Amino acid sequence: MLSRSCLIAAAVCLGLSPALAQEEPQVVRQKLMKEIGQSVGAMGAIAKGEKPYDAAVVEQSLTVISTNIQAFPDHFPAGTESGHETEALPAIWEKPEEFRASAEKLHAEAQAQLASLPADQAAVGAAMRNLGAICSDCHETFRAKKQ
C-alpha cells in the first residue's frame, strides 16, 4: 500500500511534469525553488506560531521540498548559465557532483522528516533548523547573493 506522502509526491510530479517540460530550464528551476520557498514559508509560519500546527500542511510541505529538490539538479544543462534572471553561480557547472550531493542531502533530510513527521510546533521548528542549514550551505556555494 502506498503511503499518503508517496501519493502526494506522485501527484505533484504528475501535475508539474508536462507544464515544466515545455519551459526553459531557468524558468523550470525557478518554479521548483519558488514552490520549495512556499513550503518552507508554510512550515516557518507554524514554527513561529503564526499559524496553528497542521500535520497535513507539514506533510505536504515536506513532500514538495523532497520532490522538487530531487528534480532540481536536472534543470541545469550547459548553456543555461545565464538568462531569465538566473541566480545560479558557475560553481553549479564547475562542481556538478557537489551540487547534486547538496540537493540529495536536502532530499534525504526532507525524507527523514517525513518518516517521523514533526508532531507539533516545536518539532516543526527543529525540522526547519535542519532543513535551513542545508539550504543555506547550498545557497552560499551555488546561488548568487540577491542585490
TrEMBL record:
<dbReference type="GO" id="GO:0022900">
    <property type="term" value="P:electron transport chain"/>
</dbReference>
<dbReference type="InterPro" id="IPR002321">
    <property type="entry name" value="Cyt_c_II"/>
</dbReference>
<dbReference type="InterPro" id="IPR015984">
    <property type="entry name" value="Cyt_c_prime_subgr"/>
</dbReference>
<keyword id="KW-0408">Iron</keyword>
<feature type="binding site" description="covalent">
    <location>
        <position position="135"/>
    </location>
    <ligand>
        <name>heme c</name>
    </ligand>
</feature>
<feature type="binding site" description="covalent">
    <location>
        <position position="138"/>
    </location>
    <ligand>
        <name>heme c</name>
    </ligand>
</feature>
<dbReference type="GO" id="GO:0020037">
    <property type="term" value="F:heme binding"/>
</dbReference>
<dbReference type="GO" id="GO:0005506">
    <property type="term" value="F:iron ion binding"/>
</dbReference>
<dbReference type="GO" id="GO:0009055">
    <property type="term" value="F:electron transfer activity"/>
</dbReference>
<dbReference type="InterPro" id="IPR012127">
    <property type="entry name" value="Cyt_c_prime"/>
</dbReference>
<feature type="binding site" description="axial binding residue">
    <location>
        <position position="139"/>
    </location>
    <ligand>
        <name>heme c</name>
    </ligand>
</feature>
<dbReference type="Pfam" id="PF01322">
    <property type="entry name" value="Cytochrom_C_2"/>
</dbReference>
<dbReference type="GO" id="GO:0042597">
    <property type="term" value="C:periplasmic space"/>
</dbReference>
<keyword id="KW-0479">Metal-binding</keyword>
<keyword id="KW-0349">Heme</keyword>
<protein>
    <submittedName>
        <fullName>Cytochrome c-556</fullName>
    </submittedName>
</protein>
<feature type="signal peptide">
    <location>
        <begin position="1"/>
        <end position="21"/>
    </location>
</feature>
<keyword id="KW-0813">Transport</keyword>
<dbReference type="InterPro" id="IPR010980">
    <property type="entry name" value="Cyt_c/b562"/>
</dbReference>
<keyword id="KW-0732">Signal</keyword>
<keyword id="KW-0249">Electron transport</keyword>
